[in-house]
Amino acid sequence: MIQRIQSLFLLFPSIIFATLFFVPVFTVDGTPVFMIGSRPETLAIGAIALLGLVALFMYRNRKRQMRMCRAGIILSVLYSANLFVFPKWLLGNAAASVVSTGPGSWLLVSNVIFFVLALIFIRKDDELVRSADRLR
Q1: With CB atoms counted within 10 Å of each terminal CB, which end of the chain scores lower, N or C?
Q2: 126, 62 contact by CB (below 8 A)
Q3: Cβ(11)–Cβ(56) under 8 Å?
């Protein structure tokens, strides 16, 4: 059932994390900072994007798909919170300078929203299937 709306909501986080490599997340003294900086950020972004893609193709097992959405929500919130609370992790020694958020920071927040929307619609789909099973 790849043609369902939750499929789009699971595809969007992967697209969003792919665009994070090209959109600045922070600006330090007017200089944009991109996520492609070091290996831990690349691995974390890749893992969360892959989680969304794998959950997309788990449409036959809705319980596993819901667990993967919850894991995506938790990982995305932890990653976003880590970047906003500890920007030094991404910026290195530039944290003492003037740091402001860029357009990529809003993409991190929208990623969590898309995982939550996917979870809501998967639950609705699961309830619909269960109610149809009760009628049989």
Answers
A1: C
A2: yes
A3: yes
